[in-house]
């Protein structure tokens, strides 16, 4: 029952987002901008992980971390590093 409710909420949310997207006629510029932000976020995290600036820290490349960095930009990488150092020492 719980999975049915969660699945229906997901479907309704997805349909609502699609309706808003086509009603506003955002176009391809939104998708290209969003794609560029995702790629730059992944590259930023990759550079921090493998540059050796801060040894002993590793930020995993997953949707949560890439989403944080793509929304917050470069300060998002600093936020993730600060959380990683403060929470996991």
From TrEMBL:
Pfam families: BofA. It comes from Paenibacillus xylanivorans. The lineage of its organism: Bacteria, Bacillati, Bacillota, Bacilli, Bacillales. Keywords: Membrane, Transmembrane, Transmembrane helix. The chain crosses the membrane at residues 6-22, 34-52, 64-83. This is Pro-sigmaK processing inhibitor BofA.
């Amino acid at each position: 029952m719980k999975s049915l409710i969660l699945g229906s909420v997901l479907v309704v949310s997805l349909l609502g987002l699609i309706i808003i997207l086509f009603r506003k006629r955002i176009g391809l510029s939104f998708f290209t901008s969003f794609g560029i932000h995702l790629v730059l976020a992944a590259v930023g995290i990759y550079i921090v992980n493998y540059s050796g600036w801060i040894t002993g820290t590793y930020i995993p490349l997953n949707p949560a971390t890439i989403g944080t960095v793509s929304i917050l930009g470069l300060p998002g990488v600093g936020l993730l590093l600060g959380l990683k150092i403060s929470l996991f020492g």
